[in-house]
Amino acid sequence: MADILGISAFYHDSAACVVRDGTILAAAQEERFTRKKHDPGFPSHAIRYCLREANCTVKDLRSIVFYDKPLVKFERLLETYLSFAPRGRRSFVVALPVWLKEKLFLKAMLSKDLAALAGVKKSALPPILFTEHHEAHAASAFFPSPFRTAAVLCMDGVGEWATTSAWLGQDNHLTPLWDIPFPHSLGLLYSAFTYYTGFKVNSGEYKVMGLAPYGQPKYVQTIYDHLLDLKPDGTFRLNMDYFNYCTGLTMTNERFHALFGAPPRPPESLLRQEDMDLARSIQDVTEEVMVRLARTMHRETGADHLCLAGGVALNCVGNGKILREGPFKGLWIQPAAGDAGGALGAALFGWHQYLGKERRADGRKDSQHGSYLGPEFSPDEIRRFLTEQKAPFVELSEKEIPEKIADLIKAGKVIGWFQGRMEFGPRALGARSIIGDAQSPKMQEVMNLKIKFRESFRPFAPTVLRERVSEYFELDCDSPYMLLVAPVAKTQRRELTPEEQQRFGLEKLLTVRSTIPAVTHVDHSARVQTVTEEQHPLFYRLIKKFADKHGCPVIINTSFNVRGEPIVCTPEQAFLCFMRTNMDYLLLGNFLVEKTEQKPLDKDIDWLKEFELD
Fold first, then answer.
1. What is this structure's pTM?
2. Which of 126, 500, 540, 543 could form a disulfide with 496 if both were Cys (CB 3.0 to 4.6 A apart)?
């Protein structure tokens, strides 16, 4: 038995993963257990879960692989300070104590934490290895993919030095081709606009992407003229005179603010049309960079397929554009494309690249197991919890579930859907989901304001039967991880009246644009998840029953959480979220809970205690 533990930690989205003989056994983000969104701490809970799932201990591991090289990152910190001195003094003074106390001695800190977790001496630990940050990203993109050969493109904020890197993946080996070094970063450019439009960096970038269709690309040329020198091959340089992330504690500076005529939007303040135009402009620029880089990768490698990872690969609008306009026959994107996926990549890099072990790829199926890699809970555990809470429930057979839930969806009910193993990555894929009727014109507003407690402009994603995806979307390939945006099929759209066509900004929300209005964004696009019976049998059968009885193979699928909280992990967390929102029903495994039958929550219960495994 050859088990490898991969770890990502200490920046944001800490996670752990266990790989056995090249097979991914378990992976999870620390935030799901501690309930601290984007938790950067040592992932002790995630490690315990992964080891429990693998039925092994720390001492049984062949090796432990960390997704970053801290000494190289510290070198970048020092060189950046010297390059910008004395302007970087403030940020350097803030960062240096943390490095000198902890991060510079990361191997010793990891050894201490792992030994404490395992209850052994540090000398009893297996070897601790380190990949480079973009090596872990590239490994997470290529090794689980179905392709024997592929170009691999990684784009994020920054690792040690690289912010964009190009690789060629062949069988069990990744060859680095070239990279773009810090401070020139597409991810940090996008984050600068995230910060400037009033959203949280490393968290709100997807809000900027969702806001973009409400705006006009008024500032695209301004970005090219002043901020970004973009070459025909997609490589680029930023004009650092406008950014503050090298020398200060913010993303942008006064020169940036003067360029766009105002200071940054205060968080939670009213969105202006200018914010929507800025979002649209940086989204258009980002898509152009992504498509140019993809074309360059194809020209340089001759590969038929492309794999993507890094935080920028979560820009599913850009991914969709690469698929439609790029030269590649196939695209595979790591579902946990951000730093969490670095744990998975580190483990796989250790197995295939360090040890040179064989990799199997059949060109058809990936080895990510639908990304259902987290904890699951038995019927006995769920029944015990509901009984202890004295929560009335109805137990359904697996045969009864699809029809019962399909009828509730048709009746306009919103349902918490908690099934099987939790997803790894930021998207709910039918394991920890909130579901509803995509055909309802009011469902987007209802779910945003009464259930998710979030901004009304945010779109919801559809899940569709794979065999019928092209009837409803301009897409005819697998999209199991909800990482591709595609236009809604013209046959499903309705013709807009002259008045509707003139609506501006957030007024566009008032328009019914298709037969599935709750998942049709204002630009007639949708972030699509396809589902097959092989991949998720019960979720597939639910949607199939909904299609057979009610005529539509599409439902709303959004993550089971409220704004500002991680996706739920346990039955307790799911029940709390259900009770605190206006969801109508909760299906925990086979147990259906109706809101109207529940008593108020017991305020004395510590619902948010850290997750512990028996």
1. 0.93
2. 500
